[in-house]
Design brief:
Length: 466
């Protein structure tokens, strides 16, 4: 998961309007500004929205002051995520005061979570659209613009268990080297702490033909890597097609050199998926496997569906089949009823499993979830904070050791972009998802090179192309 708000994405070139028939008046062309918050799926959804607006004849702008339409594509996973969006919407509201007719919309998970209640905090919002409403979003926005300021806000938060956005063309996003494909939407797991099943609805797989169509389109646009996205991506199923079949099929698409996926659900990590990672060289040797807690009592209360022993067995099998695999995780501290002993178990498990990296969170109660309804959020904020600091510090020291162990090795690296620090350097990734800096030489983003690793910090490797 990307855990920071992704500020305006890279500029997306315009596509010409497709509505050219003389009988259908083209809608008034609007400039659309979009900010994205939350996970990779939201980043991919922003590309989907951008592609649709372009098709309707609108264009994307990176400057909110020039925009006719301002959209915030939001996240509801923690309370803080929602607070940030409300603060940002309040800031962006000035554009509505300065220029007549500017429309502000809140899309995505927070729109779905709060629905009309959002208006109590942000009465100036014109459009509220959930994650299954994007096919209608351009029209909703056009309607809001036509009707002007004196109408009720337009709210479309219908969830649709068949919507996979098949046939829509997402705008080219990201760095032009690695592209996302959403292969599954929604979630059926209902972990007690998690809002996602309520904001994104039931799990559904995108048809394989659509996934392959998008993979070929990315390859044709020069992308070298595809990342397959889903809330529990390895539970993917479409008729007879399993996740492992899909991984192998995408790896066969000419031009695609690397296939990633995120995030798998531990219990659904079956042998056929492990075999695909082990056997297919283009499938990256990195698995993000969210553990959450090392204590069986906490895992049971979270309704994760596995014990620590189950998780340990899956990671052991992965490491046996794919010896250089990198395993990263999510750790959630301070869940309802978590004792010092539970926390100590998480710490000891982290020492035992030695994850390559971890995203770490303090529990934040989400209205509507099973935990909010049935279990007391009884770990004090200071205690959550202290436990969070402990897991962060432990993981930093483990990550630093893991990074150091790469020094001296030669690793395949896909170069993604010119480094932000220096024009003379390129940044890339190993297939184990470590960031690597090399000097530019004659290389360019999109090149797949072998790099001899010379030194490491806890976050970055440095090396030379060999
Ligand atoms: N509070 C804090 N963290 C949460 N996560 C999910 N729900 C919550 C919550 N209510 C974390 C989990 C999940 C990651 C995406 O976010 O660790 O794996």
């Amino acid at each position: 998961m990307i855990l920071v708000g992704v500020m305006p994405d890279s500029f997306v070139p315009l596509r010409l309007p497709t509505k050219t028939s003389p009988d259908t008046p083209a809608p008034v062309r609007a400039r659309v500004y979009i900010e994205t918050y939350g996970c990779q799926m939201n980043v991919a959804d922003t590309d989907l929205i951008t592609g649709m607006f372009a098709q309707e004849g609108h264009e994307r702008t990176e400057d909110a002051a020039l925009a006719d339409v301002i959209l915030l594509n939001t996240c509801a996973i923690r309370e803080k995520a929602e607070e940030r969006v409300l603060a940002r919407a309040q800031e962006l509201r000035v554009h509505k005061k300065r220029r007549q007719g500017v429309v502000i919309g809140i899309t995505g998970c927070m729109a779905e979570h709060l629905k009309e209640k959002l208006l109590e905090r942000a009465p100036y919002v014109d459009v509220i659209a959930g994650p299954d409403s994007y096919r209608r979003l351009a029209h909703l926005v056009e309607q809001a613009r036509e009707e002007g300021g004196d109408r009720d806000p337009l709210v479309d938060v219908r969830l649709d268990k068949r919507e996979t956005y098949e046939g829509m063309n997402p705008a080219a996003g990201g760095d032009g080297v690695s592209g996302f494909i959403t292969i599954q939407r929604g979630c059926d797991k209902f972990c007690t702490f998690c809002i996602v099943p309520f904001t994104r609805g039931r799990e559904r797989g995108t048809p394989p033909r659509e996934i392959l169509r998008q993979a070929r389109a990315l390859a044709a646009a020069g992308y070298r890597e595809v990342a397959l996205l889903g809330q529990t991506v390895n539970s993917y199923r479409f008729e007879e097609a399993r996740f492992s079949d899909l991984l192998r099929a995408v790896a066969q698409v000419p031009g695609i050199e690397r296939v990633r996926f995120t995030s798998p659900y531990p219990v659904d990590f079956t042998d056929d998926v492990i075999a695909a990672i082990a056997e297919e060289p283009k499938i990256c040797k990195h698995v993000h496997l969210p553990l959450q807690s090392g204590s069986d009592r906490v895992l049971a209360r979270m309704k994760r569906g596995y014990t620590y022993a189950d998780f340990e067995r899956i990671s052991r099998e992965l490491r046996r089949a794919v010896p250089r695999v990198a395993i990263t995780t999510d750790i959630l501290v301070g869940f309802c009823g978590e004792t010092e002993e539970d926390h100590a178990q998480t710490i000891s498990v982290m020492r035992a499993l030695r994850f390559d990296g971890a995203f770490t969170f303090a529990y934040s109660e989400r209205p509507g979830t099973m935990a909010a309804k049935r279990i007391a959020d009884d770990v004090a904020d200071e205690v959550k904070k202290r436990r969070l600091t402990e897991v962060i510090q432990l993981q930093e020291s483990i990550s630093a050791e893991v990074m150091e162990s790469h020094v001296g090795r030669t690793e395949p690296v896909l170069l993604h972009a010119v480094s932000r620090r220096s024009d003379g350097e390129l940044v890339g990734r190993t297939d184990t998802f470590k960031a690597v800096i090399v000097s530019r030489g004659t290389h360019a983003p999109g090149d797949l090179v072998n790099v001899q690793i010379e030194r490491a910090t806890s976050a970055t490797l440095f090396g030379n192309v060999v």
